[in-house]
Recover the amino acids of this structure.
């Protein structure tokens, strides 16, 4: 009883209109079309909730989300560059309720009972489901970098790998830095959220430094020996930021062994380095609720059926986005959005008792080298024995040789993509 | 609660209901595949001003464009790469769907 009241309070807090027009949908859904609970309101979860309603408005969809607003990781590097405001990448989920009838529940899912088909929230409320979508994104492994900690991240060595206050903190440190300092960026080993992200970040910080602190340097201490769109990024750095950026691969001693937040130093295989600004991007796992619900493998990520992203661990549960093991698909916002559409179609088909449509997945990731210089990777995938698999002789990255107009066009499409995917995800 | 708020709430219910009804997506292979286009080109509810329009374009025109993109007869940034992920028959079905939706 108490929990019901507190949930009502939460619903009321979202705005009177959301509660009011949700009511008829609940009445129609009970006992007939079915109920879906979605944990997580990022690119994956919000898209799944919206598309279930677009396929089948009579299904009762409940979206559980901890945070009031969503700050996108895509475009957070442009906040670091100073070419985009944090408010412009902060989005509300209200349209999912107002336009599509998704019930928005503000709260934190703390446990899943997959046999009783119920999600427990932190406030004690239980949400029963017919089908569950788990889209919690990532958990950062603070212990994965010796010497580093959550406290260090919140003060002197931010990760900025979940956008929001961390993005603002890293931006302030760049602003406070004297001209001539070194910015150290330490990307993790695979797999991790947004494979080209660290290198777009390098590009955008380089843009800020070139235009404001041109004597400064950037040092990339990488756990890996290769990275996404490497040839395109490195050619872009050479032409746009000559002499500013040094990349040290894992095999050359680039892997960070430990950090000292007090001394602002990093120890890597090749030696010790002091930074004016140090950005630690740690190893990651699936979001905590996926681990707590027993949906993850021993490597910390969730195995799924490549045809529909159904969990390999539990019936009636789907795991998508960064938390999933998605074959050749990268952990990206576009991947999560694409997987969510397949999941939505499969859930609707299974609740109707009909054959689902064939799965086809898509990813496009744009990166900016400068505000007028865009590059991309774009691929189509179909289910295969090892997960979603690239369609042969298709997809790939931007051409190695292209004129300035081509790079400019991709920079413009980067902006267009963002506006469209936000509308496609949050309504 | 005042009448004004009641009236507003009812109006929102009606608007939301009709918007959902208009946009219902059929459950078939082509309709699902076509939703991939939305992340860049927008959808019925959001037409991107930055991207080439594809929805409501004549099916034959759209199909010709996709085939020319696929074979690099028509230069592009990413659409050549994307259209090579689909057979000519799939592209034809997608062009038909997008022309009507």
């Amino acid at each position: 009883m108490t929990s019901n009241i507190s949930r009502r309070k939460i619903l009321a807090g979202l705005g009177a209109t959301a509660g009011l027009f949700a009511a008829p949908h609940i009445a129609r859904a009970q006992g007939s079309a079915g109920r879906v609970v979605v944990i997580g309101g990022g690119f994956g979860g919000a898209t799944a909730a919206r598309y279930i309603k677009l396929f089948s408005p009579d299904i009762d969809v409940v979206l559980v989300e901890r945070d009031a607003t969503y700050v996108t990781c895509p475009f957070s590097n442009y906040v670091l560059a100073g070419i985009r405001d944090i408010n412009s990448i902060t989005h509300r989920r209200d349209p999912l309720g107002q336009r599509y009838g998704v019930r928005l529940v503000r709260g934190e899912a703390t446990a899943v009972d997959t046999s009783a088909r119920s999600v427990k929230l932190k406030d004690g409320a239980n949400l029963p489901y017919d089908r569950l979508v788990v889209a919690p994104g990532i958990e950062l492994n603070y212990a994965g970098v010796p010497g580093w900690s959550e406290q260090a991240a919140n003060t002197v060595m931010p990760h900025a790998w979940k956008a929001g206050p961390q993005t603002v903190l890293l931006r302030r440190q760049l602003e406070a830095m004297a001209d001539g300092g070194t910015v150290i960026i330490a990307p993790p080993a695979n797999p991790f959220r947004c494979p080209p992200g660290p290198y777009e970040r390098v590009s955008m910080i380089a843009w800020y430094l070139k235009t404001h602190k041109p004597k400064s340097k950037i040092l990339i201490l990488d756990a890996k020996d290769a990275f996404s769109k490497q040839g395109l990024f490195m050619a872009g750095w050479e032409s746009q930021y000559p002499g500013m950026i040094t990349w040290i691969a894992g095999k050359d001693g680039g892997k960070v062994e430990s950090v000292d937040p007090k001394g602002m130093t990093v120890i890597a295989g090749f030696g010790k380095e002091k930074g004016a600004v140090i950005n630690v991007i740690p190893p990651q796992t699936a979001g905590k609720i996926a681990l707590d619900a027993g949906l993850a493998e021993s490597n910390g990520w969730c195995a799924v059926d490549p045809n529909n992203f159904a969990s390999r661990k539990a019936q009636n549960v789907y795991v998508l986005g960064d938390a999933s093991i998605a074959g050749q698909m990268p952990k990206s916002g576009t991947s999560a959005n694409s997987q969510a559409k397949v999941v939505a179609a499969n859930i609707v088909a299974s609740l109707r008792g009909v054959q689902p449509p064939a799965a086809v997945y898509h990813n496009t990731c744009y990166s900016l080298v400068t505000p007028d210089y865009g590059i991309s990777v774009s691929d189509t995938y179909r289910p295969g024995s090892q997960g979603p698999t690239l369609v042969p002789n298709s997809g790939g990255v931007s051409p190695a040789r292209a004129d300035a107009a081509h790079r400019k066009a991709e920079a413009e499409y980067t902006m267009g993509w963002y506006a469209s995917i936000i509308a496609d995800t949050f309504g | 609660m005042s009448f004004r708020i009641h009236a507003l709430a009812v109006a929102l219910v009606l608007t939301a209901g009709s918007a959902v009804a208009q946009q219902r997506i059929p459950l078939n292979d082509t309709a699902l595949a076509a939703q991939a286009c939305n992340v860049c080109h927008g959808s019925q509810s959001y037409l991107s001003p930055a991207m080439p329009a594809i929805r409501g374009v004549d099916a034959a025109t759209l199909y010709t464009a996709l085939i020319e993109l696929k074979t690099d007869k028509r230069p592009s940034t990413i659409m050549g790469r994307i259209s090579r992920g689909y057979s000519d028959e799939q592209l034809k079905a997608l062009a038909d769907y997008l022309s009507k939706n």
Remarks:
- Chain A touches chain B through 56 residues (CB under 8 Å).
- Residues 1-30 of chain A have pLDDT under 50 and may be disordered.
- The first helix of chain A runs from residue 2 to 13.
- The radius of gyration of chain A is 22 Å.
